[in-house]
Specification:
It contains 1 helix and 7 strands, in the order E-E-E-E-E-E-E-H. With about 100 residues, it is mainly beta.
Length: about 100
């Protein structure tokens, strides 16, 4: 198992859940096939760097995406989607390049 970093623009931090002291909650990009889904990552494995959140994780990490209902709470009826590191990287790739200016 190897450790690596996933870099995500800080604008994807979901501030509606900013009071969660254990994890940051992130929104998926609007142009992603998973738009409307969120995922959590432990605060102790996340750092801020020049407008980005850097998520520390190992190469076997699985992200669990959950759908938000219109009320802003989690939609318990929607399926949970599991994504690997590579799949998650592909979802954020366009946003990383567009943020470079």
């Amino acid at each position: 198992m190897e450790w690596g970093d996933l870099v995500i623009p800080a604008r994807f931090v979901n501030n509606d859940f900013a009071n969660n002291y254990r994890s940051y909650i992130f929104d998926m990009p609007e142009d992603s096939r998973y738009a409307g889904y969120t995922f959590a990552h432990p605060r102790k494995l996340t750092r801020y760097e020049r407008g980005y959140r850097v998520l520390r994780l190992h190469d076997e990490w699985t992200f669990h995406l959950m759908k938000q209902a219109e009320s802003g709470k989690l939609d318990e009826k929607a399926p949970i989607i599991d994504l690997s590191f590579d799949e998650m990287l592909n979802e954020f790739m366009d946003d990383l390049y567009s943020d470079e200016g």
